[in-house]
Amino acid sequence: MRAGDEGRPVVVGYDGSKASEQALRWGIEEARMRFDPLVVCYAWQWPSLSIPFSRETAEIIRRMSRHVLGMGVDLARDLAPRVRVLGEVVEGSPSAVLVSESVAAEMVVIGPRGWGDVEESRIGPTAVQLLSHARSPVTVVKEASHPRTNRVAVGVEGVSPGSLELAVAFEEARLRKASLLAVCLCPEGMEDTRQPAVRFNTNIAVWEEKYSGVNVETVVETHPHAEVLRRAADRSDLLVIGDHESDDPVGLPIGPLCQSLLREASCPVVVVPSRMLSMSPW
Protein backbone atom coordinates (compact mmCIF):
# COMPACT_ATOMS: atom_id res chain seq x y z
CA MET A 1 0.00 0.00 0.00
CA ARG A 2 1.54 3.29 -1.06
CA ALA A 3 1.20 6.82 0.23
CA GLY A 4 -2.06 8.27 -0.96
CA ASP A 5 -4.06 5.08 -0.40
CA GLU A 6 -6.89 5.31 2.09
CA GLY A 7 -5.71 4.80 5.68
CA ARG A 8 -2.30 3.97 7.13
CA PRO A 9 -2.07 0.19 7.27
CA VAL A 10 -0.38 -2.23 9.59
CA VAL A 11 2.01 -4.09 7.28
CA VAL A 12 3.09 -7.64 8.08
CA GLY A 13 6.04 -9.33 6.39
CA TYR A 14 4.88 -12.88 5.71
CA ASP A 15 6.73 -15.79 4.10
CA GLY A 16 4.86 -18.80 5.43
CA SER A 17 7.40 -19.55 8.18
CA LYS A 18 6.33 -20.18 11.77
CA ALA A 19 7.93 -16.91 12.87
CA SER A 20 6.07 -14.93 10.21
CA GLU A 21 2.78 -16.58 11.19
CA GLN A 22 3.31 -15.40 14.78
CA ALA A 23 3.98 -11.92 13.41
CA LEU A 24 0.83 -12.11 11.29
CA ARG A 25 -1.33 -13.07 14.26
CA TRP A 26 0.11 -10.16 16.25
CA GLY A 27 -0.36 -7.75 13.34
CA ILE A 28 -3.97 -8.84 12.87
CA GLU A 29 -4.76 -7.89 16.45
CA GLU A 30 -2.89 -4.58 16.10
CA ALA A 31 -4.91 -3.67 13.01
CA ARG A 32 -8.16 -4.72 14.68
CA MET A 33 -7.52 -2.52 17.72
CA ARG A 34 -6.57 0.45 15.56
CA PHE A 35 -9.39 0.00 13.00
CA ASP A 36 -6.64 0.12 10.37
CA PRO A 37 -6.34 -1.96 7.21
CA LEU A 38 -3.89 -4.87 7.27
CA VAL A 39 -1.44 -5.50 4.45
CA VAL A 40 0.03 -9.00 4.23
CA CYS A 41 3.22 -8.59 2.21
CA TYR A 42 5.21 -11.37 0.55
CA ALA A 43 8.49 -10.35 -1.08
CA TRP A 44 10.29 -12.61 -3.53
CA GLN A 45 13.46 -12.33 -5.53
CA TRP A 46 15.35 -14.41 -8.04
CA PRO A 47 17.76 -16.92 -6.52
CA SER A 48 21.32 -15.59 -6.68
CA LEU A 49 22.49 -18.14 -9.23
CA SER A 50 24.08 -17.65 -12.62
CA ILE A 51 21.80 -20.28 -14.18
CA PRO A 52 19.20 -18.67 -16.50
CA PHE A 53 15.55 -19.35 -15.74
CA SER A 54 12.91 -20.25 -18.29
CA ARG A 55 9.53 -18.55 -18.45
CA GLU A 56 7.99 -21.71 -17.02
CA THR A 57 10.31 -21.62 -14.00
CA ALA A 58 9.57 -17.94 -13.44
CA GLU A 59 5.83 -18.61 -13.53
CA ILE A 60 6.22 -21.46 -11.03
CA ILE A 61 8.02 -19.12 -8.63
CA ARG A 62 5.29 -16.51 -9.01
CA ARG A 63 2.55 -19.08 -8.44
CA MET A 64 4.29 -20.36 -5.33
CA SER A 65 4.58 -16.79 -4.05
CA ARG A 66 0.87 -16.14 -4.63
CA HIS A 67 0.03 -19.44 -2.91
CA VAL A 68 2.03 -18.57 0.20
CA LEU A 69 0.53 -15.09 0.31
CA GLY A 70 -2.96 -16.55 -0.09
CA MET A 71 -2.46 -18.68 3.01
CA GLY A 72 -1.56 -15.60 5.01
CA VAL A 73 -4.47 -13.54 3.68
CA ASP A 74 -6.94 -16.37 4.34
CA LEU A 75 -5.68 -16.73 7.92
CA ALA A 76 -6.02 -12.99 8.52
CA ARG A 77 -9.54 -12.87 7.14
CA ASP A 78 -10.57 -15.90 9.19
CA LEU A 79 -9.21 -14.42 12.42
CA ALA A 80 -10.45 -10.85 11.85
CA PRO A 81 -13.37 -10.80 9.40
CA ARG A 82 -14.08 -7.11 10.08
CA VAL A 83 -10.55 -5.97 9.27
CA ARG A 84 -9.85 -4.88 5.70
CA VAL A 85 -7.13 -7.32 4.58
CA LEU A 86 -5.02 -6.71 1.49
CA GLY A 87 -2.37 -8.99 0.00
CA GLU A 88 0.73 -7.88 -1.87
CA VAL A 89 3.30 -9.95 -3.75
CA VAL A 90 6.29 -7.73 -4.51
CA GLU A 91 9.48 -8.58 -6.36
CA GLY A 92 12.55 -7.56 -4.36
CA SER A 93 14.46 -8.39 -1.23
CA PRO A 94 12.20 -8.64 1.85
CA SER A 95 14.08 -5.89 3.69
CA ALA A 96 13.96 -3.43 0.75
CA VAL A 97 10.27 -4.11 0.12
CA LEU A 98 9.33 -3.63 3.77
CA VAL A 99 11.40 -0.45 4.07
CA SER A 100 9.43 0.93 1.12
CA GLU A 101 6.15 -0.15 2.73
CA SER A 102 7.12 1.53 6.02
CA VAL A 103 6.94 4.99 4.45
CA ALA A 104 3.13 4.86 4.33
CA ALA A 105 2.56 2.37 7.18
CA GLU A 106 1.30 2.87 10.69
CA MET A 107 3.59 0.02 11.72
CA VAL A 108 5.54 -2.83 10.15
CA VAL A 109 5.39 -6.22 11.89
CA ILE A 110 7.87 -9.04 11.33
CA GLY A 111 9.20 -12.16 12.97
CA PRO A 112 12.80 -12.27 14.17
CA ARG A 113 13.73 -14.73 11.40
CA GLY A 114 12.33 -15.97 8.11
CA TRP A 115 12.88 -18.88 5.77
CA GLY A 116 16.57 -19.35 5.05
CA ASP A 117 17.82 -17.64 8.21
CA VAL A 118 20.00 -19.65 10.57
CA GLU A 119 17.69 -21.25 13.13
CA GLU A 120 20.03 -20.49 15.99
CA SER A 121 20.16 -16.78 15.16
CA ARG A 122 17.87 -14.74 17.37
CA ILE A 123 17.48 -11.93 14.87
CA GLY A 124 17.84 -12.44 11.12
CA PRO A 125 19.36 -10.16 8.46
CA THR A 126 15.98 -9.07 7.08
CA ALA A 127 14.96 -7.71 10.48
CA VAL A 128 18.31 -5.97 10.96
CA GLN A 129 18.21 -4.30 7.54
CA LEU A 130 14.59 -3.23 7.96
CA LEU A 131 15.25 -1.75 11.39
CA SER A 132 18.22 0.15 9.99
CA HIS A 133 16.12 2.02 7.41
CA ALA A 134 12.43 1.88 8.42
CA ARG A 135 10.35 5.06 8.55
CA SER A 136 7.65 3.71 10.86
CA PRO A 137 7.73 1.75 14.13
CA VAL A 138 8.74 -1.88 13.59
CA THR A 139 7.49 -4.64 15.87
CA VAL A 140 9.64 -7.75 16.08
CA VAL A 141 7.34 -10.48 17.34
CA LYS A 142 8.73 -13.28 19.44
CA GLU A 143 6.58 -15.69 21.38
CA ALA A 144 6.48 -14.43 24.97
CA SER A 145 8.12 -16.76 27.47
CA HIS A 146 5.84 -15.72 30.33
CA PRO A 147 2.09 -15.35 30.98
CA ARG A 148 0.29 -12.17 29.90
CA THR A 149 0.76 -9.29 32.30
CA ASN A 150 -1.46 -6.59 30.74
CA ARG A 151 1.48 -4.18 30.87
CA VAL A 152 3.48 -2.23 28.27
CA ALA A 153 7.02 -1.12 29.11
CA VAL A 154 9.03 1.70 27.56
CA GLY A 155 12.62 2.74 28.09
CA VAL A 156 13.61 6.34 27.32
CA GLU A 157 16.58 8.61 27.89
CA GLY A 158 16.80 12.37 27.63
CA VAL A 159 13.04 12.63 27.14
CA SER A 160 11.20 15.67 25.87
CA PRO A 161 7.40 16.04 25.68
CA GLY A 162 7.55 14.92 22.04
CA SER A 163 9.45 11.70 22.73
CA LEU A 164 8.72 9.21 19.95
CA GLU A 165 9.02 6.23 22.28
CA LEU A 166 6.54 7.69 24.76
CA ALA A 167 4.07 8.51 21.99
CA VAL A 168 4.09 4.92 20.75
CA ALA A 169 4.09 3.39 24.24
CA PHE A 170 1.11 5.40 25.51
CA GLU A 171 -0.88 4.57 22.39
CA GLU A 172 -0.08 0.85 22.66
CA ALA A 173 -1.10 0.84 26.34
CA ARG A 174 -4.36 2.61 25.47
CA LEU A 175 -5.17 0.15 22.71
CA ARG A 176 -4.58 -2.81 25.03
CA LYS A 177 -6.23 -1.23 28.09
CA ALA A 178 -2.94 -2.00 29.79
CA SER A 179 -0.81 -0.25 32.39
CA LEU A 180 2.44 1.42 31.35
CA LEU A 181 5.85 1.04 32.97
CA ALA A 182 7.96 4.04 31.92
CA VAL A 183 11.67 3.64 32.67
CA CYS A 184 13.93 6.69 32.70
CA LEU A 185 17.41 5.53 31.71
CA CYS A 186 19.97 7.71 33.45
CA PRO A 187 23.75 7.42 32.93
CA GLU A 188 25.01 4.32 34.66
CA GLY A 189 26.28 5.04 38.16
CA MET A 190 24.72 8.52 38.41
CA GLU A 191 24.49 9.31 42.12
CA ASP A 192 21.99 12.18 42.19
CA THR A 193 18.94 11.42 40.03
CA ARG A 194 16.62 14.06 41.49
CA GLN A 195 16.87 16.49 38.58
CA PRO A 196 16.31 13.93 35.77
CA ALA A 197 13.53 12.33 37.84
CA VAL A 198 11.67 15.63 38.15
CA ARG A 199 12.09 16.37 34.44
CA PHE A 200 11.03 12.85 33.51
CA ASN A 201 7.88 12.87 35.62
CA THR A 202 6.97 16.35 34.40
CA ASN A 203 7.15 15.15 30.81
CA ILE A 204 5.21 11.99 31.63
CA ALA A 205 2.46 14.16 33.11
CA VAL A 206 2.00 15.83 29.71
CA TRP A 207 1.21 12.44 28.18
CA GLU A 208 -0.95 11.37 31.13
CA GLU A 209 -3.17 14.37 30.50
CA LYS A 210 -3.90 13.14 26.98
CA TYR A 211 -4.05 9.44 27.91
CA SER A 212 -6.00 9.79 31.14
CA GLY A 213 -7.16 6.17 31.07
CA VAL A 214 -3.62 4.75 31.16
CA ASN A 215 -2.24 3.83 34.58
CA VAL A 216 1.45 4.79 34.59
CA GLU A 217 4.29 3.68 36.85
CA THR A 218 7.59 5.56 36.48
CA VAL A 219 11.03 4.29 37.44
CA VAL A 220 14.38 6.08 37.33
CA GLU A 221 17.28 3.68 36.75
CA THR A 222 21.07 4.01 36.86
CA HIS A 223 21.81 0.31 36.47
CA PRO A 224 22.98 -1.12 33.10
CA HIS A 225 20.25 -0.26 30.63
CA ALA A 226 20.08 -3.64 28.89
CA GLU A 227 19.68 -5.43 32.20
CA VAL A 228 16.99 -3.01 33.38
CA LEU A 229 14.91 -3.34 30.22
CA ARG A 230 15.30 -7.11 30.03
CA ARG A 231 13.78 -7.29 33.51
CA ALA A 232 11.01 -4.93 32.40
CA ALA A 233 10.31 -7.16 29.39
CA ASP A 234 9.98 -10.14 31.72
CA ARG A 235 7.03 -8.36 33.35
CA SER A 236 5.43 -6.97 30.19
CA ASP A 237 3.52 -8.00 27.08
CA LEU A 238 5.32 -5.46 24.91
CA LEU A 239 8.55 -3.44 25.14
CA VAL A 240 8.96 -0.09 23.31
CA ILE A 241 12.47 1.25 22.67
CA GLY A 242 14.29 3.64 20.35
CA ASP A 243 16.67 2.43 17.67
CA HIS A 244 19.80 3.99 19.16
CA GLU A 245 21.19 5.75 22.21
CA SER A 246 22.18 9.40 22.29
CA ASP A 247 25.71 8.58 23.49
CA ASP A 248 26.45 5.93 20.85
CA PRO A 249 30.03 6.83 19.83
CA VAL A 250 29.88 4.86 16.56
CA GLY A 251 26.51 6.07 15.31
CA LEU A 252 25.26 2.63 14.31
CA PRO A 253 21.85 2.44 12.56
CA ILE A 254 20.76 0.13 15.38
CA GLY A 255 22.39 0.92 18.70
CA PRO A 256 23.92 -1.71 21.01
CA LEU A 257 21.05 -1.47 23.49
CA CYS A 258 18.45 -2.06 20.79
CA GLN A 259 20.42 -4.99 19.38
CA SER A 260 20.76 -6.55 22.81
CA LEU A 261 17.04 -6.31 23.55
CA LEU A 262 16.05 -7.70 20.16
CA ARG A 263 18.10 -10.77 21.03
CA GLU A 264 17.27 -11.12 24.71
CA ALA A 265 13.85 -9.57 25.48
CA SER A 266 11.24 -12.15 26.45
CA CYS A 267 8.32 -10.38 24.73
CA PRO A 268 7.63 -8.61 21.41
CA VAL A 269 9.68 -5.44 20.90
CA VAL A 270 8.54 -2.25 19.14
CA VAL A 271 11.51 -0.30 17.79
CA VAL A 272 10.79 3.38 17.14
CA PRO A 273 13.16 4.77 14.47
CA SER A 274 14.79 8.14 14.98
CA ARG A 275 14.07 8.80 11.27
CA MET A 276 10.38 9.37 12.08
CA LEU A 277 9.05 12.90 12.38
CA SER A 278 8.55 14.10 15.96
CA MET A 279 5.25 13.18 17.54
CA SER A 280 3.62 15.67 19.89
CA PRO A 281 0.96 14.82 22.44
CA TRP A 282 -1.09 17.75 21.18
From TrEMBL:
Record-annotated UspA domain positions: 8-142, 151-273
Cited InterPro entries: Rossmann-like_a/b/a_fold, Universal_stress_UspA, UspA
SUPFAM superfamilies registered for this protein in UniProt: Adenine nucleotide alpha hydrolases-like (SSF52402)
Protein family: Belongs to the universal stress protein A family.
PANTHER family per the UniProt record, alphabetical: ADENINE NUCLEOTIDE ALPHA HYDROLASES-LIKE SUPERFAMILY PROTEIN (PTHR46553:SF3)
Protein name: Nucleotide-binding universal stress UspA family protein
Organism: Streptosporangium lutulentum
Lineage, highest ranks first: Bacteria, Bacillati, Actinomycetota, Actinomycetes, Streptosporangiales
